[in-house]
Amino acid sequence: MAEPRYRRILLKLSGEALAGGGAHSIDPQMLEYYAQEIERVLRLGVQVAVVLGGGNIWRGNQAIARGMDAAQSHYMGMLATIINALALQDALERRGVFTRAMTAIKMDEVAEPYIRRRATRHLEKGRVIILAAGTGNPYFTTDSAAALRAAEIRAEIILMAKNGVDGVYSADPRRYPDAKRFEYISYMEALSRGLTVMDSTALTFCMDNSIPIIVFDPLTPGNIERIVLGEHVGTLVSSHPSQ
C-alpha cells in the first residue's frame, strides 16, 4: 500500500456539493459518493475532518439583499450546515465509518459541541469529524471556519473542493475559455488578483499560519485519495511550490 503524504487533512465541501445537479437540497446519491470518497482515504490511515457549507439549503446573501438582518441570516446559515453534517454523518455511518458531528453552537441533542482537544482525540481514534455551524459567529463564512479549524486541529492541508472547476484559474473558465489554470499560486498572488480560492479573510488566515490549500474538482472519483498520496491534482496555494 502506498504511503500517504498527508496524515491529517481538512476537506472543505460546499453545501451545493451535496445537492448535485438535482432539484433536492440534499441528493442521496451525492451523500453516498462523498462518503465513499472519504472512506477510501480512511483506509490509508489518514485522519479526516470535514467542514460543510449550507448554501444548498439557505442562501444568506440573497436574504440580506432582500432586507433581512445580516446576523439573523448568518445564524440560519449555520443551522443549514448542521443539517448537512447530520446527513453526511448518516451516509458515513451506513458504510461502517465511525463519525462525530461537532457544532460551534450548542445543540446537544443532535451533535457534540466543538471542543478542540476532543476533536483531536476523535481523529486519533480514526473517527471522521464533521465540523458544523461555521465558527459559531455571524459575519464569518464556512471558508473562515475551515481555515480556523485546520489551524486548531493541526491539519497538514486544506482540500478545497470546487464543483465544476479543477483548480484556480486566471478568470472564470466557464465564461472565458482561454483562462489559464495555475499549477501553483502563492497566497499573496491569489489575494492581489482577487481569485476565488476562498474568501479573503480565510485566505489571509491560511497565509499567516502557513496552511497550504489544494483547490480541486471533487467530482472526479479518487481525486481526494490521489492528493493524499502525493499526486499533483488541481492547484496548490501556499508560500512555496514544494510545500
Describe the sheet with the most strands: 9 strands, mixed
Strand tally is: 11
Structural class: alpha/beta
Specify the overall morphology.
globular
Q: Largest beta sheet: what is the strand line-up?
A: 4-3-5-2-1-6-10-11-9
CATH superfamily: Acetylglutamate kinase-like
CATH class annotation: Alpha Beta
The proportion of residues in beta strands is 15-25%
Tally of individual helices: 9
Give the mean pLDDT: 93
SSE order, one letter for each helix or strand = EHHEHHEEHEHEEEEHHEHE
Count of distinct structural domains = 1
| Estimated radius of gyration | 17 Å
Helical content (DSSP H or I, runs of 4+): 25-40%
Low-confidence stretches: none
Q: Would you tell me which CATH topology applies? A: Carbamate kinase
Rounded to the nearest angstrom, the distance between the terminal CA atoms is 24 Å
